[in-house]
Structure formats: structure tokens, C-alpha cells
Amino acid sequence: MHAFIIAGGNTQEWIKTMLTERSVSPHDTITVSPEPTSIGIEAIRTTVSRLSIHPVASPCHAVVIRNAHTMTHEAQNAFLKTLEEPVGNAFIILESKEPDTLLPTILSRCHLVNLGNAIKYTDEEITTCIDTLKFFKEVSVGKRLQKIDTIAKTRDAALLFIDQAIAALHKELADHYSHTKLLRSLLAARIHILGNVNPKLALDGVLLLL
């Protein structure tokens, strides 16, 4: 998957992690923002044109569209071909607080990533997730592996746990360093799972190191 819609949560941290995982430098990252309140077709055409230039220091370009829901319908339609066949295998991120307002044709060509805040989890779900994270810090490696087996039975189950953990971190954890380090690890694990890495292996890399 080369195109993502990011909704909710700490989009800045997720985008930074994603670009690092793909080895895309700032020099090869094209950022598009509303000017001042919308993104028009000319901005999209300029972006597509820039993709034809060879990357300076990365294996591919990355395109980050801020507040993607502000793209006009004409701009969204102009971007469809790039989403289907990205020039130079470009990596595309659409950031939006209102993804449902994007054209269905845009939504169908992107993987939606919910960073936790866009879905409201119950207090019980948040508490359970926090208790699980604390459990991993307190028990032996053997017990951690057993718990990961129950969490990562399926790809969707592993992604759900990660989303709830991200929401829990935003709400509950007070230690800034631990918060940031664990959040980055969870975001990276989510990226790996979306890239078809075995869910258990992805979570092993996070939860065995707590």
C-alpha cells in the first residue's frame, strides 16, 4: 500500500515515523497545504509535476497533503491517477480530520489509518489497555510471549490493540520520555503490520522491550 489517509491522534509523529521507515528525506518530501482555506487543482498539478523529478536523497518521493478534505472536487479528481499509479513509486499521505468528506474514489484508493483519537474508546477499554501495558513491564519474557499470542491472533486484532494503546498513551501516561518512545514503537509496528509483516513479530519488537 503506497497511499494512506491519516485521521485522529498525533499525525505529526505518525508521518515522521512513516517517512523514516520509508527512508524518505525532507528534501524529497512534498508538502501541500490549503492556501488559505482550500487546495485547488493547480496545486495538485504542480505536485504531480514535481514527482517527475528524480529524488535527491531517497528511494522515492513522499507527498504529504495537509487537511486533505479541503481539496476541491476538481483537485481530488486530478489526483486520482497519481493515487492509482504514483510517479516513481511515490509514497502518499493524506492528513484529514474529516476523511468522510473526501470523494469515495479517493477513499477507495487509500488505506485509512486511525490514530486512536478519531474513535472514542470506553474508559473500561482504556483502563484494560493500560493494565496490559503495565503487565508487559512487570512479567517475564515467557509470560509476555504468551500474552502477545492472545493479542495478535489476527491482523485486525493486533491493529485494534495498537490503536487502543495509542489512545491510552495520549490520555494516561505521564512520563514524557516513555510516552514518546513507546508511541513511536507502536506507530512503527502498525506500519509494519500494514506492510504485511507478521502481527506477532511486529508486536514482539515492541512489547518484549518494555
Can you describe what's shown?
The chain is α/β, with parallel strands linked by helices. It folds into two domains: 3-114, P-loop containing nucleotide triphosphate hydrolases (Rossmann fold, 3-Layer(aba) Sandwich), CATH 3.40.50; 123-207. The protein has nine helices and five strands, in the order βαβαβαβαβααααα. The protein has helices spanning 11-21, 41-51, 73-84, 104-107, 123-138, 141-151, 155-171, 176-194, 199-207, and strands at residues 3-7, 29-32, 62-65, 91-95, 111-114. It is elongated, with a radius of gyration of 18 Å. The protein starts with a strand and ends with a helix.
Form type: elongated
Distance separating the two termini: 29 Å
* Helix and strand composition category: alpha/beta
- Series of H and E elements: EHEHEHEHEHHHHH
Helices, by number, come to 9
Query: Which range best describes the helical content: under 10%, 10-25%, 25-40%, 40-55%, 55-70% or over 70%?
Result: 40-55%
What is the total tally of β strands?
Answer: 5
Using only C-alpha atoms, the radius of gyration works out to 18 Å
CATH level-four homologous superfamily name of the largest domain:
P-loop containing nucleotide triphosphate hydrolases
Q: Which CATH architecture of the largest domain is right?
A: 3-Layer(aba) Sandwich
- The amount of beta strand, in percent, is 5-15%
Taken together, the total number of domains comes to 2
Name of the top-level CATH class of the largest domain:
Alpha Beta
- Spatial order of the strands forming the largest sheet: 2-3-4-1-5
Largest sheet: 5 strands, parallel
| CATH T-level fold name of the largest domain | Rossmann fold
Parts with pLDDT < 50 across at least 5 consecutive residues: none
Task: Calculate the mean pLDDT score and round it.
Answer: 86
